[in-house]
Amino acid sequence: LKGIRADGGVSLDETFLPPTLVTGAVAWYRQLLLEVVTGLDQIAEAHGKMVMGGPGRSVEDLLMLNLANAARPRLAHMLAQDVFHPAELYLELAGLAGSMATYGSSARRLGELPAYDHMAPGPAYSALADALRSLILSLRYIEPKSRALPVMRHSTNVWKIRIDNPKLLVASRIVIRVGSELSEDALRKIFVNQATVGSADQFEGLWKSRLPGIPLKPLHSQPREIPYDGDRLCLELDQKSEHWASLLDAPGFVIGVSGVLPSEPQVDCYSVNR
Question: Per-residue pLDDT tens for 38-56?
Answer without folding.
Answer: 999 999 998 888 888 755 5
